[in-house]
Amino acid sequence: QVQLVESGGGLVQAGGSLRLSCATSGGTFTNYAMGWFRQAPGKEREFVAAISRSGSTYVARSMKGRFTISRDNAKNTVYLQMNNLKPEDTAVYCCAARLSGGGGLYYIDSNEYHYWGQGTQVTVSS
C-alpha cells in the first residue's frame, strides 16, 4: 500500500508562487497515476491536475497557465508548481494515487483514486 506525504504549503501573497511536493513510499511509483485536488472551507473537493505514468498531464481549466504538474520517478515524488497565486486558490491541497494499467492514462475524478495524502494548507493573502 502506498503512502503519500505532501509538503510545501504555506502563506503567500497574491501573485506569488509555491511548489508542492508529494513524496510516496510503499509502492512502485511508476505504476501509479497521480493527481492533485484541493478543498476550500465550505466547498467540495476540486480537481487541480493529473499526471499519467508516462508523464501525460492535464490541468483544470481555471488553473491552466498558472499550475503545472510533474513527476520525478527517481525521487518517487510528484510536484505541483503554482504561479501567480490568487486568494481563491486558498485551500488544503491533497495528492492522490491510483494503480494504472495504461501508461498514458490520467484521472480527473477523485473517485478513481485509491490512496490519498493528508494534505497541505495553502493560504494566499490579498
Description:
With 126 residues, the protein is mostly beta strands. The protein is 0% helix and 50% strand. The protein starts with a strand and ends with a strand. The relative contact order is 0.31.
Shape: globular
Low-confidence stretches: none
Give me the count of strands: 11
Largest sheet: 7 strands, mixed
Multimerization status: single chain
> Taking all residues together, what is the mean pLDDT?
96
Helix content: under 10%
Broad structural category? mainly beta
**Topology pattern, helix = H, strand = E:** EEEEEEEEEEE
What percent strand?
over 45%
- How many whole angstroms does the radius of gyration measure? 13 Å
Number of separate helices: 0
Quick recap of the structure?
The protein has strands at 3-7, 10-13, 18-25, 32-39, 46-51, 57-59, 67-72, 77-82, 91-99, 115-116, 120-125. Helix content is 0%, strand content 50%.
Q: Topology, please?
A:
Layout: E1 3-7, E2 10-13, E3 18-25, E4 32-39, E5 46-51, E6 57-59, E7 67-72, E8 77-82, E9 91-99, E10 115-116, E11 120-125
Parallel strand pairs: 2-11
Antiparallel strand pairs: 1-3, 3-8, 4-5, 4-9, 5-6, 7-8, 9-10, 9-11
